Amino acid sequence: MLYWAHRPREASVHVLGIDIGGSGIKGAPVDVGSGELVGERFRIETPHPPTPDNVADVVAQLVRHFDWNGRVGVTFPGVVSHGVIGTAANLAPSFVGVDAHALFTKATGRPATVLNDADAAGVAEMRFGAGRGRPGTVLLLTFGTGIGSALFVDGLLVPNTEFGHLEIDGHDAEKHASAAARERADQSWSHWAHHHVRRYLTHVVALLSPELVIIGGGVSKKADKFLPELAEVPTELRPAELLNEAGIVGAAVDATTR
Fold first, then answer.
1. Which of 54, 83, 115, 189 makes the best surface tag, with the fewest CB within 10 Å?
2. Chain segment 166-209, per-residue pLDDT in tens
């Protein structure tokens, strides 16, 4: 899938965006012309076990909560290729190989599309947020349970990059540089950023030479606590602007392109 983030904005069309995470599944109706939520966000705990049928049931609950009759866009925390799940690190392994488009369309009775969660956040930031109007190579990184990534070249999304799994010192980078790793180790923001995030970003920038790196995920709300430690990273760094709404917005926008 190639997605052009800089294409002209849609007229006022509302789509239900749903963001599936390892701990919660949240959704809201989105005006895809403005990127604004047009209803209050609603969240349900991710079911356990997080099997395809159980997760689909929660997605259907969200559709019923909003009494939704139109299109539905869904994010998924793993590789998604033509609607088929390729990886599911934080959900049940039985998701791998599932046609998620078909699964969620059947569960909701509504036309549903699915894309990687970080890619969805990137679509939102490129359309409405920190990457709006930016040409060249732009990389969004979401720091949370792991590290998600979304790569854009002149507004075109290169899907499923999964740069959180780049190897540093024999381990996935997200083992030490994710937000969850900071919390597990009880590190200060400055220690985490200086010793782990700075090294990771320097490695990524050496590989990709992006003109802009957008720092997303929940940590974007605390950017003032750690961005000063990243001043030596040789490219422009900006915190994400859509915060926790980015996945919902990006999923909704993506649904209008299928």
1. 54
2. 999 899 999 999 999 999 999 999 999 999 999 999 999 999 99
Distances (CA, A) of 140 to 61, 147, 220: 30, 10, 11
Q: Give the chain's radius of gyration (CA, Å).
A: 17
AA letter at 183: E
Write down all domains in the chain, each with its CATH number in brackets.
14-119+246-255 (3.30.420.40), 134-241 (3.30.420.40)
| Distance of alpha carbon 110 from alpha carbon 98, whole angstroms | 18
Helix and strand totals (H; E) in the chain: 9, 15
**CA separation for the pair 30, 63 (Å, rounded):** 13
Phi-psi category of residue 36: left, alpha or beta, with phi > 0 → left and psi -120 to 50 → alpha? beta
Determine the longest span between alpha carbons in the chain, in angstroms.
51
* Distance of alpha carbon 232 from alpha carbon 167, whole angstroms: 21
pLDDT of residue 145: 85
Token match 């200060």: residue?
A: 188
pTM (predicted TM-score): 0.93
**DSSP per residue over 138-165, as a string?**
EEEEEESSSEEEEEEETTEEE----GGG
The two three-digit tokens of residue 177, written as one number = 């540089």
Could you report the per-residue pLDDT of 19-61, keeping only the tens digit for each?
999 889 999 999 999 999 999 999 999 999 999 999 999 999 9
pLDDT at 9: 58
Cα-flanking dihedrals φ and ψ of residue 186, to 5°? 55, 50
